[in-house]
Amino acid sequence: MTTLEQVRKRAEADAKTYGYYLTPQPELLQGFLEGLKINEDRYGYPLCPCRLTSGKFEYDRDIICPCDYRDPDVAEYGACYCRLYVNKEVYESKNLPEVPERRPLEKQGRAYGIDAAKQAPPQGTQEKPPTPAPATTQAEKAKTEVKKKLWYCKQCGYVVFREDPPYICPICKAKKEMFAEVESKIEFNG
Amino acid sequence: MTTLEQVRKRAEADAKTYGYYLTPQPELLQGFLEGLKINEDRYGYPLCPCRLTSGKFEYDRDIICPCDYRDPDVAEYGACYCRLYVNKEVYESKNLPEVPERRPLEKQGRAYGIDAAKQAPPQGTQEKPPTPAPATTQAEKAKTEVKKKLWYCKQCGYVVFREDPPYICPICKAKKEMFAEVESKIEFNG
Amino acid sequence: MTTLEQVRKRAEADAKTYGYYLTPQPELLQGFLEGLKINEDRYGYPLCPCRLTSGKFEYDRDIICPCDYRDPDVAEYGACYCRLYVNKEVYESKNLPEVPERRPLEKQGRAYGIDAAKQAPPQGTQEKPPTPAPATTQAEKAKTEVKKKLWYCKQCGYVVFREDPPYICPICKAKKEMFAEVESKIEFNG
Lengths: 190, 190, 190
Fold this sequence. Notes:
three-stranded antiparallel beta sheet; two-stranded antiparallel sheet; mainly alpha; homotrimer; Rubrerythrin, domain 2; 190 residues; Ferredoxin Thioredoxin Reductase
């Protein structure tokens, strides 16, 4: 089982790698780290403590901390959605900004089994119980199946195997649009 | 359209990730950021503001900021070719070093449609208009076509999909020579 | 040939990327850097100065500095096995912790040609000559052949081509257990 100390060290190490800071509010920080530990013990991965789980790894993948949205959020707002990771300015000012949910409605809808076009996105906290997913037919299942592809950053060549490319290339900071699919070709002569 | 503020934040975030600083001269910094913004608006990618574009993404790829040469240049000279990215020592001394062009002549020649062996490399700035590429025959085109391969760092396993490996592995800092091609093998039984 | 200055700059740059520090003891630091330079000149790669070489790149790969074990060691003990890389706390306290050898016995056994189950792991320094590997039969060779696979981090999609996944994902800090093999599928229609 992961200890709270390990969770804290991992978050600190990751913050340093990216030049970030952990939230300047000690009580908040303690709460986030405990939330991450609880989620890791419960689900096997440190799910974002500010969002609901779908109960399916493939649908939660983008909101495992550090989530897919942290880097663009810190770049744009100075903090991630949770305000666990912040930039230097926010850290020193201690004024936590409002950070809107960047997670696409389609992913929220898929995760929570709702029609994103009709309903408002769930605004969960770890205290609230996850919305149970309604029974899905085989056809619906196939429709929402997660297909991974090999993507590469056209700028620096960084390769990832994911459903879709990251918002920002972690190596060269290029935007999502700079990613393309690695296509392989097999030729037969005869 | 990318705002100047977004360009500045992206450069700052990238500098922090790698332990670099942005140039200590405020007017230079402003000029670089504006140059990057202009290039991104014009070409769709933040081309190095100190080099000429070829007009072809595939030929410019290595000089999109942060360019392929930044990391070896900061390691060797304390600053990149532009002196946009500098190390702590240079940042504090405010003495910008001379940094020679590390971009191989072949790539310059290919980009600008000149024979690198015969002519001096162009020393461009964004103000100068790009040298128009002369008409190329089909044969010449095929000859200069950019072929990407899957490379891996033999030290840490980092994988990239590029024409050739990076100068330095961004993960473990191994040199270019430590990269090899990922070879795939398909076996048939019958 | 790599200069001592290049070795020092590479280590400093890598420490900064990950938010680490180099050992606070100047004599130790000098010794490590010289050891790394000697190893790089001798073997072609900067083998860990605190461990023995097997003489085979494939068997030494995990102990090329920065070794595979550095990141989990700094996370858990505040320093790598050598104590070349340390965290801020250790750097400021100047108290170097004891760091046990995390390298698996199987890899030590394979590298030094000993049966890991029967013998104690070698505790080498660069001064000691490497244990000569006993003659191996063709069958034994095949058994210990290093097979590389394409792995990806299920959390962030990071891809590596290695014998086994890294201890910690260098991009999102997920644990080894979050890595899975990239499986490719080729379909024929006819």
